From TrEMBL:
<dbReference type="GO" id="GO:0005975">
    <property type="term" value="P:carbohydrate metabolic process"/>
</dbReference>
<feature type="domain" description="Glycoside hydrolase family 2 catalytic">
    <location>
        <begin position="340"/>
        <end position="490"/>
    </location>
</feature>
<dbReference type="InterPro" id="IPR051913">
    <property type="entry name" value="GH2_Domain-Containing"/>
</dbReference>
<protein>
    <submittedName>
        <fullName>Beta-galactosidase</fullName>
        <ecNumber>3.2.1.23</ecNumber>
    </submittedName>
</protein>
<dbReference type="InterPro" id="IPR008979">
    <property type="entry name" value="Galactose-bd-like_sf"/>
</dbReference>
<dbReference type="InterPro" id="IPR006103">
    <property type="entry name" value="Glyco_hydro_2_cat"/>
</dbReference>
<dbReference type="InterPro" id="IPR017853">
    <property type="entry name" value="GH"/>
</dbReference>
<feature type="domain" description="Glycoside hydrolase family 2 immunoglobulin-like beta-sandwich">
    <location>
        <begin position="233"/>
        <end position="336"/>
    </location>
</feature>
<comment type="similarity">
    <text>Belongs to the glycosyl hydrolase 2 family.</text>
</comment>
<dbReference type="InterPro" id="IPR013783">
    <property type="entry name" value="Ig-like_fold"/>
</dbReference>
<keyword id="KW-0732">Signal</keyword>
<keyword id="KW-0378">Hydrolase</keyword>
<keyword id="KW-0326">Glycosidase</keyword>
<dbReference type="Pfam" id="PF00703">
    <property type="entry name" value="Glyco_hydro_2"/>
</dbReference>
<dbReference type="Pfam" id="PF02836">
    <property type="entry name" value="Glyco_hydro_2_C"/>
</dbReference>
<dbReference type="InterPro" id="IPR006102">
    <property type="entry name" value="Ig-like_GH2"/>
</dbReference>
<feature type="signal peptide">
    <location>
        <begin position="1"/>
        <end position="28"/>
    </location>
</feature>
Amino acid sequence: MAPKQQNRLFLTSILLSLLAGWCMTLNADNHVTLSGTWRVALDRKDAGLDALSRADPADRGTAWLPGAIQAQGFGDPPTIDSPWLADIRAKEWQRPEYDAYRSPERFKMPFWLQPQRVYVGPVVYERVVEIPQAWLGQRVDFVMERVHWVSEAWLDGRPLGRRESLSTPHAYTLGVVGNEGLAPGEHTLTLRIDNRMAFGVGPNAHSVSDHTQGNWNGAIGSIALHARPVVAIDLVRVLPNTPARRAHVEVHVTNSSVKPADVRLHAEATCPAASSVETGTATRITANSRATHSMVLELGPDAALWSEFTPDRYELILTLESEFGRDTHVTAFGLREIAADDGRFTINGKPVFLRGTLDSQVYPRTGYAPTDEAAWERVFQRIKAFGLNHVRYHSWCPPRAAFHAADRLGLYLQVEGPFWVNQGPQLGLGQPIDQYVYDETDRILNAYGNHPSFVLMASGNEPDGPEQGGRFLRAWIERYKQKDPRRLYTSGAGWPLIDENQFHVAYQPRIQRWGEGLDSSINSRPPSTDSDYTDYVQSHKVPVIAHEIGQWCAFPDFDEMSKYTGPLKPKNFEVFRDLLARNGQAHMARRFLMSSGRLQLLCYKEEIEAALRTPGYGGFQLLDLHDFPGQGTALVGVLDPFWDPKPYVTASEYRSFCGPVTPLARLPRRVYTGGEALEASLQVAQFGATDLIGVDATWSLETSEGIVLASGAFGPLDLPAGALHDLGDIRVTLPSEQPTRATLRVDLADSANQWDVWIYPDHDAQPFPDDLIVTHHLDDAVIQELEAGGTVLLLLDATRLKGDVAFGFSPVFWNTAWTDNQPPHTLGIHLDPEHPAFRFFPTRHHTDWQWWDLIGYPDARAGAMLIDHLPPDLEPVVRPIDTWFRSRRLAALFEARVGEGRLMVCSFDLTTDLDQRPAARQLRRSLITYMRSKAFSPSVDVDPAAINKLLRDTDAQPKP
């Protein structure tokens, strides 16, 4: 490392001692809160402190700290030309759908939550502070818990320095009371906080971007003056040794006085689940110096170990006494060891499977992450209720309260530096961002490193640079593996997968990767529950976590809009609601939400179970358990941005396929014909708190009508925790009388899981009867038959349909606005399962696995008909749900009256490879039966010319 870089790191370490002092326990007598009203001025012209008197009157006033000035009326109304700190897809923004929202008077941003005010630049804050007479001889620090972004401070015009952290407190030393420049009494404290891009962290980094929290200006959390002895504890590092049941404690002490001091250090560690222990030492520290002292806490044979199931943490109280007074410092730690053993994670020697989600710093009610523990407890309790045990902080680091809450509740956290060095900035080119990565990592580890929940760290998200940042990040990993071995390190989330990584976060093991579109496995391969990622996992020596799996979308929940009571408003939802209404489908909003949501849940179940079926897997990180209302608006969560469940899901249902103990079934397919044998291998991903000894696993196959087709049990079984276990194989000969949906259910201890399969009678494709006219084109002869009272089935070739709507089995991936309109463009289908057309085709109101034969089969892929021009009262029998950025009226099956005749229009392929598509064969039979019955009585009249406008070329020859 160059000497200049070494000097900067040394200076940074001195500053970090001030930050760590913020964590100490203080009496009210040595703590003065500065929460309250401050004078403020927007410094648009970079005038510095003069802005308080020279700024325009509209840019001056008072504001409350902690808080953000934009939320208090300062700044400018947002427009497209606002100085957004976010990637904007200009091509998408220019679409005609958004014409009405571009003007400043009616501006609505469709791609992220819209702040009420926008301001990017410096703001000057000032107030009078009182230094108590009782603090005479004490060192006074001014600490702000979290600042966005760069701060400078002055006391009575005397500069105190500059701070740059996005992740840790900004701390300034005002001086020693009674010494020159810091007398007791009133003083003027001035701040200048600048939220412009100070370093190239990336415009989409979740630490700064408008896509997430928004680019606010201010300070949040604790803002206070702290008085401390001139000889004080500035930093404590606790390094647990789990096998030895002890903890090594490093105490960093600063002597700010002009003479040496004799100090006595005392440490006491307490835990409700274990015996208290204490130790002490005495030493001497020279004047104006900083020294490190070590102590060992022997925690004893009954020491409490920390894990997700036993979140027993210790409170360590350190007391320093000297002639200058008494200083007390409190920190939390856990006896916890995370390691990589034979390709998988272990906690305290026991294998663990990380079932994780992202937190992208989306907190709409405030515009920034909470700093109180109660708020974090609520978030973490919801995450655990849905079966997860892990949270990844995508390109940001949470505040202190999050670590405390995660320690108490038992969550494993992956923390990242505030970097998405991509889309412009790069690592390893010698730019200021390189040093900032090191500085910020040091600050994070010193501020939060003792917390047992902090188990993993990445430099940031998806880095770019030479070799995707690999050359730079090799050195970064090696430095911190040596400096702080209390956690495991990886280069970056997503990539690069370099040898130095202690674990990989890899985007490859997913059922749909970015850009795969309709070629992804879920859209191009027949459904089964038999896939896994064994080959990929075994090709790596370190644990693998799947990066940002899922990304399955649901339609917007417009009822959610009333929750946005803070500075960020859902103008994007207003745009989407307008588009839906403009296309005559406002009445479908709730139904689209529920049907798309159930398909989303179905896809997440398969995604998660594929990971759980993989032996030796490290885990997965969802993108996301809750919605991400930026980057185009990515409605990928089963929870909304407020961490509340959406109406189509419950925590218990989600936890059934995503829990500590999860039964699994390997089914080679989902659709069967009568007389065939259903064969399945039953397993359990057993990562619960304890070994399961002598338990029984029971199973049953039951139809939707309540008829039990078969059942059985395996056991008693011994199932040690920390592994994927085989339970046994089952074989059931299926009935052939009626089409039905059946559910395979497996129960084990307190866990249960289930899978639907469909059983159809074993018959050949029913020939089209003579009294039913089947055609691929409405020519004059067919129209004459209709007008004369004929019954017609019009089968349209998906490749000839207008509209370029890519209809796929899965819902939209991430969102169409931010993926260059990546297919599919649909969110599944909605239908009325009681419609007589489905009398012999059992279905629910949403896409389910049997529909893959009709929607996803590659050689007979369905099409979505664009029916905006058809009568508004025509309600399709099967309605594909369009992306919310268009909300066009679509149909895959609809009925209409033409003259005296009855017409069914279908864009499902009911003729190709029917011997391999039993569900398509069965829908064909059900439709034929319906169309020959009196129940087939369409009520909406449609002009034949309008029907032919569904096609690109109405003069094309019919399909042979």
